[in-house]
Amino acid sequence: MLAIGQWTIDTDKAQVFNQDQTIGQPLQEKTLKVLLYLADNQRIVTSQELLEQIWQEGSSEGISELKSCINQISQTMDSSVINTCDEGGYLLSLPVFKYDYQPVTFAQTKAKLQRQQLSQVARKTAMVKAEPPAKKPANNQSIVAGVVVGVVVFLVIYLSSQ
To answer: What are the angstrom distances between the C-alpha of 86 and each of 11, 72, 90?
Structure first.
């Protein structure tokens, strides 16, 4: 599997998927080879190099097939995916990510979800345990002492202003 920008390329099935598609658009074998070669090299690749690597010849038939492949990539994905360079080459203009796709069974998915749920519960439990204990309510003596101090301060201020 290969991700180029917002597109995913299933290299085994020679299909391109946009991020919101469930059914891929097919690519011809040579088109896929051109796309993979550009993705592997991540630099300006000359037409001659592509012809030598993919067609093993520089015939006019190879050149027309190459142009057809580039056009199919541009139409299937987007015209901004491949830049045509003045030097007679091509450059893949989006970042490329390669990854291995491993089919996952329902049991594996269910087990992973259960692990995630358990870890969420453990995090919530840890957060509850980490909370500081609530302050004890003040007793009557401390309330009375606070009121007395407040009255004394008020009287001192009042009397000093007289």
So the answer is: 29, 20, 9
In order along its 162 residues, the chain shows pLDDT tens digits of: 888 888 888 888 888 888 777 778 888 888 889 988 998 888 999 888 888 888 876 566 777 888 888 888 888 888 888 888 887 788 888 888 887 655 556 676 777 777 777 777 776 666 666 656 566 666 777 778 888 888 888 888 888 876
Indicate the pairing of strand 89-92 with strand 82-85: antiparallel
Identify the residue whose tokens are 């500081």: 132
Edge-to-edge strand order for the sheet containing 89-92? 45-46, 89-92, 82-85
**CATH for 2-95 (3.40.30.10, 2.60.40.3080, 1.10.10.10, 3.40.50.970):** 1.10.10.10
